[in-house]
Every structure is written in C-alpha cells, then in structure tokens.
Amino acid sequence: MVIVVLMDLPNIYAGDYRRLLVFPIGLLLLSAYFIITMGVPQGIELRGGTLITLQVASGTVVNSQGIADALAANGVQEAIVQTYPNPVGEVVEIEIAQNDLLADIERQVPDFNKQFSATADAELELAVADEKARLSGTSADAAAAQQARQKYGAVYGQFTATGEKLLGEIRQAGGQATGSYENARELKELVDNSFASARENYRRRIVGAIGSTVQYSSYSFQDVSPTLSAYFLSKAEGIVIISAILTAIVVFAVFRTIVPSLAVLIGAASDVVIALGAMALFRIPLTLPSFAALLMLIGFSLDTDMLLTIRTLKRSEGTARERAMDTVKTGATMSMSAMVAFGALFILALITHIPTYYQISAVAISGLVGDLFATWGLNAVIVLWYAEKKEKEAGG
Q1: Which of 75, 277, 360, 369 pairs with 87 at a CA distance of 20 to 30 A?
Q2: For all residues of the chain together, what is the average pLDDT?
Q3: Residue 3: pLDDT above 50?
C-alpha cells in the first residue's frame, strides 16, 4: 500500500522547490529549542547513580510518593519511581542520583592510589639506599641515603594527609573509618575498608527505607560510580569525534566537491539534532542503547543522502528534478520499512516495559521521521540547486 502511494505521488520538486525548506528548518529550530530549554536527560550510565529494581507481588499497592519521601528522609533528594507489570507480578524501578559525599570520595580515590604507589616506590628506594650505605660505609652513599629518606618523608607525609582527609569524609558519609596504622600499606587498607563500609551502610539505609514502604520478594542494586560514568562519557565522545571524521573523509572522497559533500553531512547532522530534540521533549534518556541508536541513524541518513546525491548528480536520464523524485520513491520506501520494524519494537517495549527496547525504538523512529524532512526537504533542495546551477553553467 505504501509503495503504491509513493509511486503515484506527484513530483514534489516541481515549481519552487525551495519552499520545502520551511519544514526541515522549522523542525530543526524546534528541536534546538527543546534541547536548549529542556535538555536531553542522561541515563545512569552517563551521569552516574543507582538503579534499584524490586519484584513485588501482583496487586501490591505501591506508594511512589511514600518511597520518595522515605528516601528523602535518608538524604536522597532526587528519586524517580516507576511501576510496571511483568508475568510474575509487578516491578518497581527506583532511580536515584549519586550520593554527593560518596561520589566526591570516589573521585579522590584514583589520586590517593597514585600517591600510595609513589610512597611505595620511595620506600623501596630508601631501603636500597640504606642497605648500600651500610655495606659501603662511604659518605657519598650516606648522603644519598639521607636524600632518599627526606624524599620518602615528604611523599609519605603527603600520602598520610590525603588519607586522613579521606577518612574524615568517609566518617561524614557514614563509614566506619576507625583504626590505627603504622605504614602506608596499613593506611591504604584502612581507607579502602572504611570506604567499602560507607558504601555498604548507604546501600543498607536505602534498601531499609524502601522496605519500610513496600513489601518486595527480591531486589537488584545497580550502582554506576562517577568514575565509570565519566569513562562511558569520554568513550562516547571519542566515538562521536572519530565517526564524524571518518564520515567526512568518506563523503568528500566520494563526491570531491564541497556543496554535495556538505549537503550529505548536513542531512546526517539534522537527523541527530531532530532525534535529540525528541529525546528532550519526551524525556528519553541518553543511555548506551539510545546512543547506539543515534549512531545507527547517522548510518541510515548517510545511506539515503548519498543515494539522493549520487542519483541526482551522477546520472543523466531525465531532469535533475525527475531524478530526485525517483530517489524519493526508493528512499522513502526504505524509511517507511525501517519505521514499521522499529514501530513493532516500540510496541513490544510498551508491552514488556524493557527500557532498552523503548530507548532504541523511540530514538530510531524520531530520527527516521526527521530523516524524511531532512533528506527530501533540506538535502534535496541543496543538491537540486547545485545540479541546476551546474547544468546552467554547462549550457550557457
């Protein structure tokens, strides 16, 4: 049915095709407005936090506000509670932001570990220098040993200062940061054990607060530290930069002309902007699955944009407008087929309440709708303008 309708569609590029720019430009401006004013929400993987999943019996009354209030009484000011059915009852998902104290300690731990390694190296260097001075008995070796001792004292002093500061913050976060130490290794063990106890106590408080408001049969506790979320974010940024560079290289290598190449790249970028605008409007979080869907959109957009550009510029049958319209029928059929497939996944996500399915399908559908406007209303106009300009220059 869709294919028949597309085959009977009149040439949309007849007349002043520049009017088609109104739709994609308007959609891009609207998407940019949503992105700037509302922001694209980030999932736990990218911003850090904790996801608690509870399995409750069917028919159990879940007081979402009561859970949020109980968590607030235990220092959690930001909590998102969602409930949905599954085959064995109901599932309650509680997403909470990072604990600021624990997150700050987590960020300091890598530097503390580096200082421990430096202290251990200085201690070994001192032991070697002392042994060499004892065996040789020379004043030069004795001076070297004294210098190594001073270096160790400075490094160890800095390490203990950092460790004591961390222990104070761990106590404030509710950890059992008590005990004595005689050397750097014992201090590191004390800090590690105290931090582990702080995290475990925090987890127990959270689970206890939730258990006071709802009865559950089992639960899972997924915690993403700020270090891990920063790692995910940096990797995502690196992938975007590398993919953008490689895409630009391939496109320019194919067309070897500025205008058609920019048209293809603008079309791909427009798809991403429109998808991000939909994510901001409908509060679809930017997670690893939705990020993968955005990358997939770039590939799909390049496919339709290059199909349009190659057929319009590198073929000779008919006029440029006729060639562009023929491409619309092929490309739009591809887009509609993809939307049907992702629409089925979206329906499945609504039935099963699987977040990964929902994020991938919702982002893909938003981007594919945007691709219809960006490719055939924006990219096509640029390519047609360029093609007709070249034809006039060749004929004149």
Answers
A1: 360
A2: 88
A3: no
Instruction: Indicate the residue type of 363.
Output: V
- The DSSP bridge partners found for residue 192 are none
d(CA 63, CA 150): 62
Strands (E), the chain: 49-56, 79-86, 89-96, 218-224
* Six token digits for residue 76: 């959690």
Q: Which of 12, 7, 14, 8 is nearest to 24 (CA)?
A: 12
List of long-range contacts for 81-90, beta carbons under 8 Å, 24+ apart: 84/353, 85/58, 85/353, 86/55, 86/352, 86/353, 88/55, 88/58, 89/55, 89/56, 89/57, 89/58, 89/60, 89/217, 90/55, 90/56, 90/57, 90/58, 90/60, 90/62
pTM to 2 decimals?
Answer: 0.80
E strands present in 66-147: 79-86, 89-96
Over its C-alpha atoms, the chain yields an Rg (Å, rounded) of: 30
